[in-house]
Amino acid sequence: MPRLQPSVYREILIHLVAWLCYIGLQVVAIDKFEHRYVANLLSALAQLPAQLIFTYVTLYVLIPGYLLTQRYVQFGLLTLLALLICGMLYWEGTYYLYLVPFEPARLKTEKPWDLGWFMLCAFYLLCTSGLLIGFHMIRFGFRQQQLNQQLVIANQRIELKSLKDQINPHFLFNTLNNLYGLTSQNPQKAGEVVLRLAQLMQYMLYEGNLAQVPLPKEVSYLQNYLALERIRYGDRLHLSIQVSGATDRLFIAPLLLLPFVENAFKHGISRQLDDAWLQIQLTVSSTELVFKVENSKPELTNEAPATGIGLSNIAKRLQLIYPNRHQLRQLNGTGTYLATLTLALTSSDFRSEKTYEDQMFAG
């Protein structure tokens, strides 16, 4: 015999409590200070089967089978039919299960088949059971909203992981190409390259899986990459990087800044034979972070450097991680290309190093 899930037991318990509360209120409400609680309870129990039938037929047959599938006409007609049938059962239960054994004197004035009583009982059912049905549907709506929110969050996490997985091989491919070119041109510097590459991979494998990392860690990661490129290009590359502002307590999403620099090398600097330059500015204030990457490119081409997968992925990640508080601008000029990322910062972005240590330990 299959075991019921705890959520099913909890749902059954909620329904039992709701019906007990309803019967209790019904007994007290119709008493009119006559202290006929036992008689009122027996009357309520005699009417209960019709209420249960109408409530649960509506909840578990008519609403999911017709209302939620947008079959409104069928839902209305079947609900009216169920209401009339249960209204009849309501009165018959009252007549035979309560009046006959407990108030036989009323049988002289009441009839078991009375259309007026059927209609009145149907209206009473609509009011009383309708409240319970409405309460259940409100709970159902809240649960669906929570499930939808959880689904959205889960989908965002899956998409974000997919985007990171795309960035990492892209970066590794470019770096290994750089290492290959360097080992054939200047083997004595291969040891430094391997060391910096190991530091880069360590950051990608560990910090890259965290939700946020200290900004100095991201800057250090960026500087390791630039050191590799500086070795590769030598005197052909004029490189400038400036970091200003209170960066110590700021946390950002990992692997967020490098694709801008990768893009500058891949679509601009790598296509120039000499006099290539790259200027990077990172400015942090209490309200925003501004990251600018400007690079030279051949003057004869008007191709936008943003065609690589790096910036495309970053644009998607920004939508997921910093919705409604980021701005990405790109200026493709003659001989130059400028990408500017602006992040609006909140108090939650400024935390202590202890938070980062806790994340690393938990990971």
Task: Summarize this structure briefly.
This protein is of the alpha+beta class. The chain has helices spanning 6-29, 37-67, 72-102, 115-185, 190-205, 215-233, 258-267, 309-321, 353-362, and strands spanning 213-214, 237-245, 251-252, 276-284, 288-296, 326-332, 336-344.
Would you mind describing this structure in some detail?
This is Histidine kinase. One of its GO terms (cellular component) is membrane. Residues 159-237 form the Signal transduction histidine kinase internal region domain. The protein has nine helices and seven strands, in the order H-H-H-H-H-E-H-E-E-H-E-E-H-E-E-H. It has helices spanning 6-29, 37-67, 72-102, 115-185, 190-205, 215-233, 258-267, 309-321, 353-362; strands at 213-214, 237-245, 251-252, 276-284, 288-296, 326-332, 336-344. The protein has two domains: 6-149, no CATH class; 186-362, 2-Layer Sandwich (Heat Shock Protein 90). The chain is 62% helix and 13% strand. The chain is rod-shaped, with a radius of gyration of 36 Å. It is of the alpha+beta class and 363 residues long. The strands form two sheets. The protein has a five-stranded mixed β-sheet, with helices on one face. The protein has a two-stranded antiparallel ribbon with strand order 1-3. The protein starts with 5 loop residues before the first helix and ends with a helix.
